[in-house]
Amino acid sequence: MTQKPSETVVDAWIALVRAQQAAVLKVERAFREAGLPPHAWYDVLWELDRAPEEGLRPFDIERRMLIAQSNISRLIDRLEEKGYVERRACESDGRGQNVAITASGRTIRRRMWPIYAKAISETVGQHFSEREAATVRDLLTRLVDPQG
Amino acid sequence: MTQKPSETVVDAWIALVRAQQAAVLKVERAFREAGLPPHAWYDVLWELDRAPEEGLRPFDIERRMLIAQSNISRLIDRLEEKGYVERRACESDGRGQNVAITASGRTIRRRMWPIYAKAISETVGQHFSEREAATVRDLLTRLVDPQG
DNA sequence: CCCATATAGATGCAGTCGCATGGATTTAAA
DNA sequence: TTTAAATCCATGCGACTGCATCTATATGGG
Questions:
Q1: What gap in Å lies between CA A118 and CA B136, rounded to an integer?
Q2: What pLDDT, in 10s, does the model give residues B108-139?
Q3: Spatial distance from the CA of A6 to the C1' of C10 (Å)
């Protein structure tokens, strides 16, 4: 069934791990140096900012961000504690809740964007042409397994 | 100087983060399910297995693996505790040490390889042709910043 | 309706991470 | 040589992670 990976595949795996490590590390440092929250906060706030007004269910965020359920739960705790999101009871499902972004959540997201944009440019954009970036996007998207 | 990243670049960044997350998660689970140590252990043991007999300096491993110094220090602690590596005083530098793999370290590394190989094949290899894997390798290698 | 099972989300816990700092030694400069 | 700066590695700390488990609600079958 599953054959051994070729050397090229192993190298691609290593490059993937190292590249992401290096890139994430630099992005996180950029946020930290700017006195801003970590990058995961941005991603959640971004999802919520473009979501319908009533917000999203935690399991929705979970699936979009590929984060474990327990981590989403606590990430929302932290965001809520800072007043960036609100938890509301969910009408249609008594077990669930809706998480909605607040005004101050929108503000902090907007403040984070320039830092994020700059870091992405420096760590990723500057190394690729448009065409190469599209190739990376297309190839790597395949790895984000839709079915497990 | 640093311009805003294009949408394609942002998408490439997101794909990179998601792809690595998904892939690492699956690999870690494969090791765990097999009752084996996590993937970082393999990487260190692999470096040491192909290193000269006296081993490597921690800062050497650090640079090869892009892991923070404090984490290397503790990773070596754990490996040493299990008897997979040995720390020896370094002759040429009184501050340093040499880390060398032991026989049982070589054994565990060999036992880990089939699991690792299978996981890499499943998470990466099967989604790419040889040519595509080479492209991923070449493009992503650029992001692993040689100079900071 | 009742019960078994599945799903949403929270939480205890142990392990790991990055950062900041500390102690020891080496290197460079005065 | 004496002193200052840099390098190597360890460690305290607070934060975050994944896993396992728990409670509560929902859903499907009898």
A1: 23
A2: 999 999 999 999 999 999 999 999 999 999 99
A3: 44
